[in-house]
Amino acid sequence: MTQALPEFLATVAVPEEDLEFGKEITVTHTEVVPVSADEYWTGFDDYFRLQAYVGMHEHMTTIKGDGGVGTVIEFDFLDGRTQEILLEKDDSTKTWVIAMVGSNPLFKTYKAAVKVDKDTSDTAKVTMSITGIVALEDYNRRRGHVAFTKYMLRNRINEVLCLIADKKGSVLNWEIEIDCRPKKLWDAVNDWAGYAWVMNATGVEVVPDAPNYDLRRKVFFGTAFAEERLVMGSENPNTLTYEMGRNDNMGALHYRGKVEVVETPSGKTKAKYTSTFLPLPGADAKTAIKALMDPRMEWIKATFADKPNYFCMLL
């Protein structure tokens, strides 16, 4: 993961009672999301699509079931395969529960539950809880994993918003090739305290919130700023994902951006950028975001392209 996240997680407080090896623990987070409870619950309509959409479910196959309670899926996880079963999906209470079948290198037991409640007519209160026994014997690794699991709860809650957006076609993709080595661009993207890859940015203020397991930053454009939350950074491929709440310039209630930096066969750089968003009511978010991002992609190409060495050319 991007270095900013483990450095941040090392600063958060993890209750000592949650670090006893072999003890079953529960971590919980509640988030108010910018859609109604009924709309948020549509993200759970299709069990297979939901599980395939969220991260860390590569090469998913069905062991049994048709997507209802009792369905078992299997997917790649670390160096092996992990199975999960759908234990509960109650439309009347908007409750969804899955559990791991057996164990894996990180958990001896694992159960995740989501409860969706009405907040207002336009917002929902979503609570996600994970209960399990961490399999890591090393204290420091166990502590890091508990902290990471807590951080991931908000990610998973908001990931359902992205699935809802994806179902509606509220997604835009860009792919550009840049005349430079991948490390040049990735070093800039991967620097959570930097802004070299953000067009027109004038500064960054990192905003860590350890008590709430939340790492954000303010990207300044003169006196104005956009607040971004770090979702995840990873390698192989080099990928950074961040998200924002309501953004009137984009016409979005929720926005998630994902940038992937890979090497081309010629040793240059290919950058892939994905925007996933929920539009504000009445807004043409797709047009607004495209108008903002098209020139930014061209700026990145020009800014990070290696400049000719005129001295060598003269020789």
Secondary structure blueprint with pairings:
Blueprint: H1 4-9, E1 24-33, H2 37-41, H3 47-53, E2 58-64, E3 72-77, E4 80-90, E5 95-101, E6 107-118, E7 124-134, H4 139-167, E8 171-178, H5 182-189, E9 203-209, E10 214-221, E11 224-234, E12 238-244, E13 252-263, E14 269-279, H6 285-304, H7 310-314
Antiparallel strand pairs: 1-7, 2-3, 3-4, 4-5, 5-6, 6-7, 8-14, 9-10, 10-11, 11-12, 12-13, 13-14
Structure notes:
By secondary structure, the protein is of the alpha+beta class. About 25% of the residues lie in helices and about 40% in strands. The protein is built from seven helices and 14 strands. A seven-stranded antiparallel beta sheet has the order 1-7-6-5-4-3-2. The longest helix is centred in the middle third of the chain and has 29 residues, at about 140-165. Residues about 310-315 have low confidence and may be disordered.
Q: Taking strands numbered 1, 2, ... along the chain, how are they ordered across the largest sheet?
A: 1-7-6-5-4-3-2
Supply the number of helical segments. Answer: 7
Unreliable stretches? 310-314
Strand and helix order: HEHHEEEEEEHEHEEEEEEHH
Fraction of residues in helix: 25-40%
The span between the termini is 44 Å
Strand-residue proportion? 35-45%
Sum up the overall morphology in one term.
Answer: globular
Helix-and-strand structural type? alpha+beta
What is the mean pLDDT? Answer: 95
Rg from alpha-carbon coordinates: 21 Å
**What is the count of β-strands?**
14
* Biggest β-sheet strands, sense, barrel: 7 strands, antiparallel
